[in-house]
What we know:
Distance between the termini: 31 Å
GO biological process, one term: GTP biosynthetic process
Number of helices: 29
InterPro entries: NDK-like_dom, NDK-like_dom_sf, Nucleoside_diP_kinase, Thioredoxin-like_sf, Thioredoxin_CS, Thioredoxin_domain, TXND_domain-containing
CATH architecture of the largest domain: 2-Layer Sandwich
Region (Disordered): 588-621
Domain Thioredoxin: 1-115
Protein name: Thioredoxin domain-containing protein
Amino acid sequence: MASKKKEVTLQITISNQEQWEETLSSKGLLVVDVYQAWCGPCKTVVSLFRKIKNELGDDLLQFAVADADSIDALEKYRGKCEPTFLFFAGGELVAVVRGANAPLLQKTILDQLEAEKKVLNQGLERKVVKDEALLEEEEETSSILAQVEDDELLPSGKSYTVAIIKPDAVAHGKADEIIMKIQEAGFEILAHEEKTMTESEARDFYQHRAGDEKFQELIQFMSSGPCHVLIISKSGEEDVIPAWREFIGPTDVDIAKKEKPESLRAQYGTEVLYNAVHGSNDREQASRELAFFFPTFKKQHQHTDELASKSPERTLALIRPDVLRDRKDEVLQSIQEAGFSIAMQKEVMLSEQQVEEFYKEHVNEDYYPALKQQMTSGPVLALALVKDHAVKHWRSLLGPAKITEALNEAPDSLRARFTPSEGEINQLHGSSSPVDAEKEINFFFPVEHTLAAIKPDALEEHRDEILERIQVAGFTVSQIKETNLSQEMAEEFYKEHKGKPFYDQLVNYMCRGPCLMMILSKENAVQEWRALMGPTDPTEARTSAPDSLRSLFANSILQNAVHGSSNINHATEKIKFIFGDIDLNGNINGTSDKESTKNTVEDIEQSEDSNDGTTLPENEE
């Protein structure tokens, strides 16, 4: 059965180095879509690849998707957003195509497949290539590393300390919760590594305590399981060590609970030895511990700083009403062919007040009345485009703002190609600078907050994997709380579905064990989280969204791993239900969880979604 399923899969999924090496050893031509975990494979080419595969029916042609973040051989492709397709034959790179350029991809596939057949059948020499773009980056990186070789250990004025989340806290599943509390307290995590120390390493690390009575017990404990090692800093602190030690509390847990009940050790420790977290005593010890756990941190940290400016850039694009109505697909195709990725998109009807706010710098211009009339004549499509130097490339692709200039000076530009049916206002907008781009993106895609939950079965089995995917997807976890829903709370939480066939099952299932409740924050958070979750039915998810959480971790429609709000109003209501009165920065006001639940539950409105009662509705996933 397994082999049959593999035959009908269009794209092989490669998620680790071993699979990469195995797949490259296959015979024929392999076309690999190299992607970043945070933005996923390029979905726009799937139909093209399927069409080519169906038409050719050639077993020598294979397609694959490969996660650059988890494959050592693709390390140099990490941090890039532009779609990249690598062509391999005989384990060698024979071609590279950047951007979702359908005609170029089709031509390259046909040409390279024909060339490989000649290699296999006629013994011709295979033409191997190198990725020229990577060679240029290697030269830039070498130059950067040469410049930082003699720099300070950390950026000037940056105080740091080493922190350890000990094996007892990790074993009890508290590491993520502790990390969230660290960040909420204003500490910056400069580096983070999970590590299991050997007894020898633990002995070396704690050599300054070799004379302690319980030294051997300490060594055995610290080498008993994985711990999380962090480098901690804090803006505005000349010396972060006192602030960190104040935050973690006294070594003795009993004293911590009496004197510093809000400290980490009071909340997560059980006794002196099993006190959950470690912190450096002074700068000298911090420096020694840094060298012990992160001997190459100097290069890694500063290399990241120097290359930060090379990260893909975002810009805002607007398709105005006339062209959106008549030629939307053509414009989107042009955007994809130019190598842009669409990070977010939203179709919206703007009011006159919104247009005035967005174009406030143009309100006194002669053309503003016509611009306002155009922008309010129908819906516009807002797009957040991503690419290296996105602002510059998008403006170049647009051409001159005046239609007459675009037609005369840049006839191949988008504004010349997509002229309006009437009037003199061009139909495409682009941000003028990176700063303006971020402001404009925030105008159309403001940061939202949504309620997310990891349900009991998934929390027990897949907690860390789901949290990692949430982080990779770019969400900020503003609040997090593990809680057991009582029968009463679960009934109130899902009261809009009372009387439906699945209601009792749903309530009983949600009371089976603890859930992890979270407030997730991100631009377009509600829809982004729903997309990451995938369809309610995991069977459907595995077909239509194979990388979604429900495809990967759900067992059934009822036990579908995660929950998410269906719209921003629903999210606000449910956040209030679970976390009480809370501001956007995550500060809880007033009563405790259960008290606030009782006080606010009657305020939760009925869901607007209709349902025949046979399946779980989309807003209660």
